[in-house]
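New to this. Comment on this protein:
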Amino acid sequence: MPKHKKPKGRARGSGRRAGQRFDAEFGVTTEATIFLGELDPYALGGSLDYATHYDPTPIDDFEKLMAATTIAPQDATFVDLGCGLGRIVLLASRRPFRQVVGVEFSRALCEVARENLERFGAARRRCRDVRIVCDDAKDYRLPRGAAIVYLFNPFHGPVLATVVEALATHPGDLNVIYHTPLGRAAFDQHATFEIVADHPWAVVYRNKRSGARPASSLRTSAD
C-alpha cells in the first residue's frame, strides 16, 4: 500500500469501548481488526493488492456523518462498500432507508456479517430490506434512485479510481461518506463531486445533480 498522510485520528480507546458495548448489547461481533490476507487471499484475486484491513467505524462518528447528509433516508438506498463485519449495515438498518446493502469481497467476512445481521434481528430495524452482497466493489453497481454510499478507507489505487468513476455516473442524487479519506483526492479533483462536510477524519460529498441545501448546513469541522 502506498504511503499517505493519515488524517487526524479519533479517540480510538473510547471508540473501542463503545464498540464492545454495542457488540455485547446486540450479540454481534464487529469490534475487531482483521487483515484480509490472513483470511481467504486466494479467493480475492487482484483486488486484494489494493484492499486495506478491516477496522470498525466508531459509532459516534457514524451518527455525526449521517447528520451531514443531504438525502432523506426514506428516499434513498444506503450502500456500504467494503462492509467487513457489517457494523455500519446494522447501524444504517435502524434508519428508514428503502434498502441497506453491505458489499464485501471477502467471503469469510461476508459470512460473519450475515450472522451479525441475523443476530441483530428484524425487530431492531426500521429498514425492512437489508442484505449483504459478496462482490468486488469495483464490479458492483448501485441500485437506481437516490443513494448514500459509505466508505471506511476500504481500498485504494485503481480499485478506488474505478469506484469513483462508477459513482460519478450514477444518475440519481448521491451522497458519499468517506471515513479516513486517504484517497480523497480522487473525489476532491473530480468535477462531479462537491464537499458537504469536511472533518479531519472524514468527508461527506454529494454529486452536483443532488438538490441544493441551505449554505448554513455546509460546514467544516475541526473535531
